[in-house]
């Protein structure tokens, strides 16, 4: 069982089953709804997700008929998406997870839609916290 929550912790979810087909999606819809370079999403069975807290906070936006993106109306965290043509599955936003998971992403998708500053192969340095210049200035 995996636990997940939004930024404000108003919505708490449990996933009682596997997370399948995890991908890093660089499509323009995921970029806009996440506000960043890509979204990491995976399929879960609809009946494997329990809303532990905050059901009333969950609002949705239909970007196409039957295609809903659900989010926390308090903190605006993207939560999951649903598709009326595939009601037995939900697409979970993996950044919500508070649990360590067994599953791993399998690919970067829609890379032809990626932002021109999003360099998949960048050999960028990695830091445990902020980059050194930001630590020095104590900015967050
Ligand atoms: Zn929230
Ligand atoms: Zn996408």
TrEMBL record:
Pfam families xrefs: GFA
GO molecular-function term, one example from the UniProt record: carbon-sulfur lyase activity
Domain CENP-V/GFA residue range list: 2-118
Keywords: Lyase, Metal-binding, Zinc
Keyword Metal-binding assigned: yes
Coiled coil: none
Annotated family: Belongs to the Gfa family.
Name by which UniProt lists this protein: Aldehyde-activating protein
UniProt source species: Pseudoalteromonas luteoviolacea
């Amino acid at each position: 069982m995996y636990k997940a929550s939004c930024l404000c912790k108003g919505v708490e979810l449990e996933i009682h089953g596997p997370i399948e087909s995890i991908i890093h999606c660089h499509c323009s819809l995921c970029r806009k709804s996440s506000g960043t370079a890509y979204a990491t999403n995976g399929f879960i069975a609809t009946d494997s997700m329990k809303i532990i807290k905050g059901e009333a906070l969950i609002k949705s936006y239909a970007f196409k008929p039957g295609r809903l993106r659900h989010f926390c109306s308090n903190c605006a965290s993207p939560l999951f998406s649903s598709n009326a043509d595939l009601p037995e599955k939900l697409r979970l936003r993996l950044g919500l997870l508070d649990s360590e998971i067994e599953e791993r992403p399998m690919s970067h998708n829609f890379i032809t839609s990626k932002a021109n500053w999003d360099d998949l192969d960048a050999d960028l340095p990695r830091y445990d916290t902020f980059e050194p210049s930001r630590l020095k200035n104590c900015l967050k």
